[in-house]
Amino acid sequence: MHRFSTAIATIALAGASFGQDAPEPPAAEPTPGVAPTVEVSFAGDAASRAADMLTGVWQSGNTIDETGARIILSIAPVAFNGIDGTLYAEMSRSDDLANPYRQVLMQLYDFDGTLRLRTLEFRTEAGPALAGMSHIPDRFPQSITGDDVIATLDIDLSAEGDGFSGKTPYAYPTRSGGAVQMTSEISIDGASLTTVDTGFAADGTVVWGGDSGVTFSRADGLVDVLRLESPDWSHQFIQINYTEGEGEPVADGDFLALHYSGFLADGTKFDSSRDRGEPFRYLVPGRLIEGWLMGTEGIRQGAARRLIIPSELGYGSRANARIPANSTLLFDVEAIFIERAEQTGENPDEAEAIDGAAAEGE
What we know:
Strand order of the largest sheet: 2-3-4-5-6-7-8-10-11-13
Structural class: mainly beta
Helix content: 10-25%
Number of strands: 20
Strand content: 35-45%
Distance between the termini: 24 Å
């Protein structure tokens, strides 16, 4: 008998399971959805051209450590509540696309006839509420306003060849890496983007950066976004595929072990298998909410996805434990192991894989 039951703490959260008490699936068949246009107002033609050049997914030319991972920078214009001309940017490791380690806003604005690029940091950790929004900018939450960000530095931009380049007009205070102040530079031509940051000690010596910086090239196709919609839903169902995984997709009758974290739209975490240090294992398809079934259908071992589930595919108008009524649900899921239906009894390989995943989640 397996050490893991087919219903763990999530069952206690949801009454019996994600979906035993959930609303019936909608009657209308879902159809492929289209990304809505994001209307962002920029300060003139130069700012609009710079925004177009910045927008997209970028990959660093050099690796960052012995694993061979690279920096992935993803940028998209967003309609930000309270500030015009904004783009949202997130940085991730290429081997961990689902978990950006830096999230920042950029603003393109005119300062006394000069085009400026301003960075705005979030006053509190942006975290899961914004993770992935560079790939679905139409869902950038309007609950975040100008009061939630603080300006950190400006870069004066000027046209150069087919693109733009610029640097900070003066050094800015910092506490990073033993430096007390820093400067930044950027150049972009539509096909490449280069950033150079330099940190200075109190005596004026360079303590980090100051070399040729980091050069990025476009890397479209790293992340795939699936959208489905129905007249019965208030919002689209969205599935962001960060990693495809390997092997055959899961099928009915298989046992699926995966790690997940569940969030409300404001980033509030309501459940996580990683926090418990134990993957969620169940017999596919399971008695789970419709959005979960849609978002894990055909998943392969090692796949990582973010699911954005409208309330109609979750718990609808009924509150459930820490989930308010009519809540959009966000799930980050990673398939750890699939035990095929033809396999019987305890599987040593599965046990080892699950134990390893549990250790990583602690």
